[in-house]
Amino acid sequence: MIELLPLLAAGGHPAHGVGFTAVDIRTTGLRPGRVVELAAVRVDADGSFAGELSTLVDPGAAIPLGTALVHGITRGELDDAPSFGEVLGPLLDLCAGSVVVTHDPAFTEAFLDREIGLLGVRLPALPGVSTLAAAQSVVRLPNYRPATVAHALGVPTGPSALSGARTIARLATVLFGRYGLTFASPPVFPGLPRFAAGRLLPRAEESAAEPGWMAEAVERIAGGGSGDAYLDLLAGVIADQHLTPDEVAVLAAAAGEAGLTEAQVRSTHEQLVTALRTIAERDGVVTTAEARELRQVATALGVAEAGDLRPSAGGKPTRVLVLGTTVAADRLRARVLAEGGRLAKKLTASVTHLVADATVPADEPRLARATELGAVVLDIGAAPVALGFEPPPAPPAPAKAAVPRLVGGRILMGAGLLLMLVVVLAMFGGTPLAAGIFLAALGVGALLGGWWLAEPAPR
Description:
Layout: E1 2-4, E2 7-8, E3 19-27, E4 35-44, E5 49-56, H1 68-71, H2 75-78, H3 84-95, E6 99-102, H4 105-118, E7 126-130, H5 131-138, H6 146-152, H7 161-177, E8 182-183, H8 213-218, H9 229-237, H10 245-257, H11 262-282, H12 288-300, E9 319-323, H13 327-338, E10 342-343, E11 353-356, H14 365-372, E12 376-379, H15 383-386, H16 402-428, H17 433-454
Parallel strand pairs: 1-7, 3-6, 6-7, 9-10, 9-11, 11-12
Antiparallel strand pairs: 2-8, 3-4, 4-5
């Protein structure tokens, strides 16, 4: 369904005037199964909103819903939902004449192709781009999971497919606008068949919960992106710092469905728990709650020894909030994550440093509030040194020419003083007045010239 377009940093065909339709889905599992929620958001290249759709999708009463821990959809919510065949028409109408944007095209396309295949429908390939691949080309991150990329680029996220599609749409406009990505060749939009418009059943939007320390730590774990589906699922489930036996059973079923062996599952569990422990210890501050929660998760996953995290005494971990919409702000957010730091999404009492770029007005209320909370407020240029990412600049060395100038100036001043002393003694010895005045003038001139040479040059 999607044919990816190669992208260039510059020099290709600009995205000006091109429409983007961001697509996100929630599914029954990790392997191509069935879609249970579909959303699409259309925007222009400048970010102007052009339309959206969102709906639950009933895969059939006999189809297990799979990882409800992640998508949060119940069987009861799907009883009155339309089938995929009913929503295909509205989806294609929204996508017509636009570039389709997904985060991980291989995953999304596999599920959409299966649904379309079950309908017996054949569609031409639509031009598409991947926000995962595009982000990899412009910013260095520990991983490229959707939430990590969105956080680094200052884009909000949410749990539903609609909030996911909105996030992907905003990422597309940031990547093409702020970073100036271009198409290697102009998009070609095929004609699409028309299908009857079916009914839609949107899911009620839920506010995203404030992430706990594990949810933030997941953004700093190396890896992630295409091919890490089980690790992504696991990371999403443990984001609330707790695992129940039912959640573990669902994870095991998902791993089995994905074809993972028991040894592979255990290795993935150890990899995640060990990474979480390393990240928690990296800043030298481990709270009792962090140690307790990691131990509970590690025990539930069957790798208790990997979660042996010891609390440390006192201290407050560094937590950074970066405000701004420039490339410099994006790169600082990415660097905080890459350095293993804690990157905040909003201002709370736990934030230790607030960094603002040139797009943040001086009267931004969060700047004053951060000071009230005891946070250090920094300019974007000073932040890397203040956060310990870079050493402070060395003081400038004196210019090589300054050394002989200084020495010569002092010699000349010494000669002037000596000459003045000779003049005084000569005058007492009866030297004529005219000769004394002449020699005194030479001495004063030597003193002034020496002082001028020895004086530091203005900067």
